[in-house]
Amino acid sequence: MSVLAIEANEPTAVREKFRDALAHFGSGVVIVTAIDGDGAPAGMTVGSFTSISLEPPLVGFFAAHTSTTLPRVLHHGDFCVNVLAEEQHQLARGFARSGADKFSGVEWTAGTNGAPRLAGAHAWIDCSIDEHRPIGDHDLIVGAVDALAVPAETEPLLFHRSLFHGLRETR
């Protein structure tokens, strides 16, 4: 097996290698959903989701300034973080696309705030927007956790080096 070495220490080189290096950081995969201004469901796949605070319970995610879905998700001030289960990789791909009817054939129920909870999700976190601000070329959205649920024991979907993976226990 060959070793891929990524090294950069000058600003231009760092920008060029940034995505490559950060692709080596594995993360969970979520779909953030909401009801838009027209009463229709809206959603987007997000790979940059994080827990922020236990007291008060806060979570956050980042979305590109260029996202056409983000304004629809933020319209009412409430959203649901759908933590995807291992077998939901096709759903993650579908919600990552722009311009498609992302909810076509997707089963969901309304959460406590009305935002779609996707069937089969590993966990749901219903939130109201606590803070929204630009940072770099993205927006940071902080959500106050209003309700959450883990509907069934499943394995999470993970993203690493531009591929979806399941969780394998190691000892």
Topology:
Elements (H helix, E strand, L loop, with lengths): L10 H12 L4 E2 L1 E6 L5 E6 L2 E5 L4 E7 L5 H5 L3 E6 L5 H8 L11 E3 L5 E3 L4 E13 L2 E12 L8 E3 L2 E3 L6
Antiparallel strand pairs: 1-11, 2-3, 2-6, 4-5, 5-10, 6-9, 7-8, 9-10, 11-12
Q: Averaged pLDDT, please?
A: 85
Number of H- or I-type helical stretches: 3
- Helix % is 10-25%
Overall spatial form:
globular
By secondary-structure content and strand pairing, the structural class works out as mainly beta
Strand order of the largest sheet: 3-2-6-9-10-5-4
Largest sheet: 7 strands, antiparallel
Number of strand elements:
12
Give the distance, in angstroms, between the N- and C-terminal Cα atoms.
23 Å
Q: What string gives the helices and strands in order?
A: HEEEEEHEHEEEEEE
Low-confidence stretches: none
Radius of gyration: 17 Å
Strand percentage lies at 35-45%
What are the main properties of this structure?
171 residues, mainly beta, seven-stranded antiparallel beta sheet, three-stranded antiparallel beta sheet, 3 helices, 12 strands, 40% strand
Task: Give a concise summary.
With about 170 residues, this protein is mainly beta. The protein contains 3 helices and 12 strands; from the N terminus they run H-E-E-E-E-E-H-E-H-E-E-E-E-E-E.
Characterise this structure:
With 171 residues, the protein is mainly beta. The chain contains 3 helices and 12 strands. It has helices at residues 11-22, 70-74, 89-96; strands at 27-28, 30-35, 41-46, 49-53, 58-64, 78-83, 108-110, 116-118, 123-135, 138-149, 158-160, 163-165. Strands 3-2-6-9-10-5-4 form a 7-stranded antiparallel β-sheet. The protein has a 3-stranded antiparallel β-sheet with strand order 1-11-12, with no helix packed on it. β11 (158-160) and β12 (163-165) form a beta hairpin. The longest helix is centred in the N-terminal third of the chain and has 12 residues, at 11-22. The chain is globular and about 50 Å long. The two termini are 23 Å apart. The mean pLDDT is 85.
